[in-house]
Amino acid sequence: MLILRMLPRAALIPCYYVVRMSALSRIGVAIDSALLEKFDKLIARRGYTNRSEAFRDLIREELVEEAWESPDAHVVGTVTLVYDHHVRLLSEKLTGIQHDFHHSILSTLHVHLDHDTCLEVMVVRGKAAVVRRVADVLISTKGVKHGRLTITTTGQELK
Ligand code: NI
Fold it and tell me: Are residues 93 and 145 in the same domain?
């Protein structure tokens, strides 16, 4: 503190950002031994080297899911589609939908998986309600074999 007081006011500004770093809290959780054993096996299979990071990821997952429940929340995600491009007018239809929602679709990756099958991954961003609508319209298009909306986060709210 003595050093800080001796510095001119302008020199203190960078210190503000250091102080803003989130503090670490330790918590104790009572958990059934059999359940904990299953959890430890699960996180080991997933490659976690300690429980803390696994718990943190579970909490983050729930927070991201909850953010998506709020229609006005600003969200980011991906829509994955698998379809047969020989289905009449399907490619044109999917392209038309993407143009209709061009404000929400940032980028599209198209992979020709084999002679018939295409895989498309679209990065979507915007209000949760709009992004869900884009995904629903694309995935429910007749001829799409499989589609999935993966929800994630801009990361700004999470530590
Ligand atoms: Ni293709």
Answer: yes
* Cα 39 to the center of its chain, rounded Å: 23
* Rg of the chain (C-alpha set): 23
72 Cα–ligand 1 center, Å: 34
- On whether both 106 and 92 belong to a single domain, the answer is yes
144 CA to centre of ligand 1 in angstroms: 13
Beta bridge partners of 81: 120, 147
Q: Which structural domain range is residue 138 located in? A: 74-153
Does 60 lie in the same domain as 80? no
Predicted model pTM: 0.74
- Centre of ligand 1 to C-alpha 110, Å, is 6
Per-residue pLDDT of 69-124, as tens digits, reads 888 889 999 999 999 999 999 999 999 999 999 999 999 999 999 999 999 999 99
CA of residue 86 to ligand 1 center, whole Å: 10
